[in-house]
What does this fold into?
Amino acid sequence: MLLESILLGLVAVWGVLDYQFGTLYTFRPITTGPIVGLILGDFEMGITVGASLELIFMGAISVGAYIPPDVVVGGILGTAFAITTGAGVETAITLAMPIALIALSISNFIAALTPAFLKIADDAATKGDSKRITKVHWLMGAFGVVEKFLLVSLSFYFGVDAVQAVIGSIPEVAINGMAIAAGMLPTLGFAMLMRMILNKKLVPFYFLGYTLTAFLGMPVLGVAIIGVIIVIEKFGFLDNSKKFATADGVQEEDMDDDDF
Amino acid sequence: MTTSNQNTVENQPLITKKELTRMCFNTGALGMEYSWNYPRQMHMAFLLMIDKQLKKIYKDNPEGYAEALTRHMEFFNITPQLAPFVGGIVLSMEEERNKGLIDGSAISGVKAALMGPLSGIGDSIFLGCIRVIALGVGLSLAQQGNILGPILYFLIYNIPAFLVRVFGAHLGYDLGFTYLQKAQANGTMDRLMHAAGILGIMVIGSMTCDMFWAEVSLKIGSGETAQTLQEILDGIMPGLVGLGVTWTYYWALGKKVGPVKLILLTVVFGIVMAYFGIMAA
It folds into this structure.
């Protein structure tokens, strides 16, 4: 139990370090799920629960200044509780989002304090001392590392019995209801994503993708390939490649003419 | 003789190709979001990314170097994969700054001007398009418990990401800022964003009908000819229920109902449906 709590905490540590290794997006449930499964002795369930959670969190991405719910903590604990209690995907889904939101508010609290260290980096900059700025860089991230390690390992260590007890007392009809909800909720992830990227000009392409899969059963990769072909045609990346690539070149000539 | 010699030296780019490639893999470039903070976001990581090259540019000018460090402690935020591109542009400008050709404020101005449009384009390409395709391929395998799913997801997302980092650093350094100004003025950036949007939204549309598993199990009719409502709806249009639910969520999110509230409402809705036997998982 203790060992598992620590190992899960280390998965959370990797979730933060991911941002130091090139924002690889391995902190998402689809990739943390299998590792959690491996730790808790059910690799395959880790993969499937991680995949289901990924769908729910699909739209929870940081775009611009928007800070999404804490998908690292929510994903790891959601998967871990689902495996240890044997309650499956439904539990993972209902637990993960509230956990992620609590975790976000804790992160926000810490994020309000850490900018105090920026003063050190500012001073170092005026003295031309980039070594000290490097130290502050590592320090700022270390707060997240420690925070998420403690949050995940402590919640798992102390929470698993409580979660088990609560789940044991849920009536059958509620379990079925949660399963229905679990089947519906992936589309919430899509809706959140659509809120971010959808505009009037893109609506027809949404339905094109939908129709290809609904009526022809085309897999996602096939739809993506058709999408690439449409983009190539629509923007003339190939046949007008000269015109497109040198659209700037043409302007450059114009501008040169203006200059002289 | 000496003059022509000096000319060739001056025309040679100061930062070598190798150095630019290496820059894409240093602490700053990879850790663009590690020291992220609310007030100034990715500023420190950006500074650390170009630090070594700044040292080279200002090697005989310590005041200039300190001034450059102070300049890059200012606010910065971008899609992390595009940071090396901006780094390349900034380095070409810092060289001119060292020669006294431009003002330091011009560099800050360019950085500030690039953030918005490049983040827009970067987020739509990486988060709204490549990531969605990677998930589309990865999720269907992962749902069957196949580890290839997460692995493919990882590769499909990250291979383009790192190509863009390296290619971007070189492009930015070679072209400088003027090119980008033109690209924005003639609408190339908008077209790229639209293209990424088309790809991303088609994949989302496709996934809408794949990833909805609840079923309307209510039976209509009696005996042998009884059909579930789901079968009837699917007969009209496959995946119609999922489509309806997706757009209901979309509408609700637009009305500022938060995701957590929607999840709780969905659970309550599910329990009611289970109680009356209208839906099944």
Observations:
- DSSP finds twelve helices and four strands in chain B.
- Chain B has two domains: 2-202, 213-280.
- Confidence is low (pLDDT under 50) at residues 1-9 of chain B.
